[in-house]
Specification:
There is one protein chain. 17% of the residues are buried. This protein has a domain at 99-245: Histidine kinase-like ATPase, C-terminal domain (Heat Shock Protein 90). It is α+β, with helices and mostly antiparallel strands. The radius of gyration is 24 Å and the shape is globular. The protein has helices spanning 2-56, 58-70, 74-96, 105-120, 140-158, 212-222, and strands at 124-129, 165-173, 178-186, 226-232, 236-244. It has a five-stranded mixed β-sheet.
Length: 245
């Protein structure tokens, strides 16, 4: 009888613990879904606001362009068109922030979060997305770890510059049998040594451990079909991840 009571007690405890864990997991999943939905709604609202403002100002835009043409002010027209083109690109980028195009909810949420963070810091983010993430040729967990680290580094570097530029590209290169992710950003320290940035604790940023790119290197070393090319020029610092079929 005593044994039965002890067994019932432990079974009850196991049931309570299991039920508690189950509800914690469910709450976590619901929280994540609500976060994704909130980010998606923010994106749609931003897109709607941008388009409405653009339509509202359309007559003014045409009138202004007409003024430059009537007075044969080609230099003024070029400068005006440059700004207009930039605004059109921003609206187009918002259209691309769609879960139908970025067809993995985890990657979609990561990109939304990082792009919103960049925009709050005044960084101009442009991107192209021409990749089917359902056909991704690497582990999605490791992919998002690399992508998150590269985006964090790009934001940290770009926010210190005057230009404040980040360009993202996701595409296939069928000639090389690989999928390519490019993260480019403006950067201040033109003397950065691209041969040592992957070393443990190597960083030029204050209050940073420098472990991010070290973790990227570990992931690269575990996967024979991955390669990361790091380059720089006078304007942009570039990380190009290549995932081979």
């Amino acid at each position: 009888m005593e044994i039965l009571r002890h067994s019932a007690y432990w079974l009850l405890n196991i049931f309570v613990v299991s039920t508690t864990i189950y509800f914690f997991i469910k709450l976590h999943i619901i929280h994540k879904k609500l976060q994704v939905a909130s980010n998606r709604n923010d994106t749609l609202q931003n897109l709607n606001d941008e388009v409405r403002c653009f339509k509202h100002d359309f007559d003014n835009i045409i009138t202004t362009i007409g003024g430059y043409i009537n007075f044969n002010d080609m230099q003024g027209l070029k400068e005006y068109y440059k700004n207009l083109e930039c605004e059109c690109k921003n609206i187009n980028n918002l259209y691309l922030l769609s879960p139908k195009i970025i067809n993995d909810s985890g990657v979609y949420n990561l990109l939304i979060k990082k792009i919103h963070k960049a925009k709050k810091l005044g960084i101009n983010v442009s991107f192209e997305f021409l990749m089917d993430l359902k056909e991704l040729k690497m582990n999605i967990y490791e992919f998002t770890r690399i992508l998150g680290i590269l985006l964090d580094n790009a934001i940290e570097a770009a926010k210190e510059t005057t230009d404040k530029i980040i360009h993202l590209s996701f595409r296939n290169d069928f000639s090389k049998n690989c999928q390519i992710v490019v993260v480019e950003n403006s950067y201040f320290n033109k003397n950065v040594n691209i041969d040592t940035i992957f070393d443990k604790s190597k960083t030029d940023k204050n209050n940073h451990s420098g472990l991010g790119l070290f973790e990227v290197r570990k992931i690269l070393n575990r996967n024979k079909n991955l390669n990361l090319f790091t380059t720089k020029d006078n304007q942009l610092f570039c990380q190009q991840l290549e995932i081979y079929y």
